[in-house]
Amino acid sequence: DVRHGPILYMEDVTVSFDGFKAINDLNLTVDDGELRCIIGPNGAGKTTMMDIITGKTRPDQGKVWFGARHNLLTMNEPDIAALGIGRKFQKPTVFEALSVFENLELAMTADKRVLPTLFARLEGPARERIDEVLEMTGLAEQRRRPAGVLSHGQKQWLEIGMLLMQRPRLLLVDEPVAGMTEQEMERTAELLTGLAGKQSVVVVEHDMGFVRSIARKVTVLHQGSVLAEGSMDQVQNDPRVIEVYLGE
Ligand code: ADP
Q1: What's the rounded Cα separation, in Å, for the pair 182 and 192?
Q2: What does CATH list as the number for 6-246?
Q3: Does ipTM come in above 0.90?
Q4: What pLDDT sits at residue 229?
């Protein structure tokens, strides 16, 4: 399906912590349906940027829009989440004693906003969505197993699946392949590239091989601003990027 316009628009965003500019005149546009990778050395501002999008951190200045209609700087964290912005932190946090299926079921109902319609939502469409997400995450055969016995990779996919239950429009994913085997990384690449187009995905990742395998467009952050942007080949051959990484 063809979509138009950016899903995320950040203009001249600056955030200071005790006078230190963690984000410094940041400009970033992510198109609807895009899969974007954000890379950059430690301290570049990647986490702070994600915190700004989700409303956890409020910038000192700048613009942050979600689509053409939502000015995120006027909204609080829960309202931003309710727009369909999901965030996956690095460490998986699944309910270990519950089955894979129950984790997904809970993810559908956990949002208090849907509680009044809980019973309506858990009918056919909700079950269908669980089946869909089990397929997408490759966890269909694990559906009855307690999440606690899953491999590290499977737990990460389950958590992404839990976010997908709410059909987010924008998914923010923090270092998804840290600690994964080669095979798990390949599976994660398939999962994330499969999501693009249907939803927009922003991935912060350190593993360059993984970034190369999934990214169409890469943004390099450095000292709180965009240092370079383009294909993996373009940014990897950019002398400024090479300098920053060699100096790390
Ligand atoms: P990255 O995720 O790219 O490693 P961060 O966004 O975590 O970078 O941090 C960017 C810079 O801002 C770092 O120098 C970090 O020390 C600083 N920083 C981040 N959060 C805070 C905070 N709450 N208070 C003070 N300094 C912070």
Answers
A1: 15
A2: 3.40.50.300
A3: yes
A4: 97
